[in-house]
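Sample intake sheet
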Amino acid sequence: MKTSALSLPLLATAALAQADFTQLAPTNAPSARAGMIGVSDGALLYSFGGKPGPGVEFNDMWVFSGVDWVDITPAAGALPPGRDWYAATFDLARGVYVLFGGRSSALGSNLGDTWEFNGATWTQLTPATSPSPRRWAQMTYDPGLGACVLFGGADGSNYYGDTWSWDGVNWTQLSPASSPSPRARGRMSTDLVSGETVYFGGRNATTVFGDTWIWSGGNWTQVTTPNAPSSAGVPGRFAYGMTYDALRDRHVLFGGTRNGPTLSDVWEFDGVDWTQRAASGPSNRTGPTFAYVLGLGKTFLYGGFGGPQQSDTWEYQTSALPAVATTGSGCTGPGGSLTLTSTAEPWTDSVWTGECANVGAGSLAFSVLGLPAPSFPLSLAVPVAGAGCTLENSAAVLLGPAIGTGAPLPIQVQVVVPASPLLAGFQFDVQVAEFTFDPTGNWGGLYSSNGLSLTVGVR
């Protein structure tokens, strides 16, 4: 397979765009509180308990649909004691919400209990082994292990650096070759496709950390980054919100503190480095519900502590989303019907890729790029064009050729989209043309795929 690439020219004049916050106005919402963890099953955002003020914690369960909050606390049956700063995640394999530990003012202690919620009832589990009681631990679902993974936390002056897995029956302490130092109050977020989990910062009794760790394949690996979430230029953060935005392929961090005022800045990690964003909206705070909901394609923030506890709801996403639409249909060449499909999203600062199937052996395949234009029969311009073959764009640029070899193979097309927010909403079209020539028979043929109309998005 041969690949040709083009750098898209800066032709757009759209206004600047990037991911930002929008405040929502749900009819119903939980009361003001902090110290929660946002958890999503892919369709809804779950928020349990939290602290409304000194000396008390809730044990109600709320879900957010993207429009309104609904209290789904069971009216009967067992309920976990009220708490804040617990660890929670959604076990995607078993379809249950999992909760561990936290802090209870009513019980006067940190907790070490394990609970599961199936959407209707709570069940307390009694595993043979379990992490010690603690608050500020973090938990996520690891698709590679097919289990929930918990890290760190604290109980009084004891800070932990242990890693555990939960399979629905028992907790198992893991033995990774390397690990972050003992700490608490950081957060974890997981890319379910790659299986990588990011843990940033946190703190122990004396130090606020600014390091970045990735959990993958049963081990922790520290990532050295040129930049990191910081306060007054000093790296480090704890008690923030963090989640993985699957649509934009970014781990998003909001707020928190670093031994000083609460913060409201946004940082994003792309797997290589942290970048501070110019997003604005929610006030300074720690301990909010903050989670991405896959089915809604957005991150949501609720509550947190910013002086008093908060009760506002926000969504975070870019207004400049990428889009791909098919135009026309491919005609049949020597290798079969030429079908062009998109294999990536056309974001700025990325390489868009597509594949055209059924390019014949020995044929020359060209990528045809241009601005949107009405469908035009190729035979009107090129007599050797096949029946039903059309041009689907202005044909401003011709790339190639890529040569088909052996059996009909897909030809890959690449377009380099520059890192410019001016390209937000810019539209260009891509098509593949196949040329065959038989010098013995003294004939040639020109065939075309369907077109793809691409709208550029800005992360």
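Comment: The domain at 19-318 is CATH 2.120.10.80 (Neuraminidase). The mean pLDDT is 93.
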